[in-house]
Specification:
three-stranded mixed sheet, 91 residues, 8 strands, mainly beta, three-stranded antiparallel sheet
Amino acid sequence: MNDALDPASGFISLESKGEIVRYWDKDHGCPAAKLRPGDFYITQENEIITTVLGSCIAVCIRDDQRGVAGMNHFMLPLSADGQWGGVGDPL
């Protein structure tokens, strides 16, 4: 995928600099992109975006009118007091 501006839609096609794992999802019969921690992916293609979560957070968004969807996968930073993001229960 390139990082060029699509003048027709005003949409920029983006993916993180990490290596996105792409494969054919047999169950859904379409291409899929699997994100790892620190990755993000935005697409206008008809494909699945997937990840595996443990202590990470993934945010997904979809705009049906523009036909675009995306996901980012990130970890909360561990603070000096041992709490994720500086709030919540200590580990």
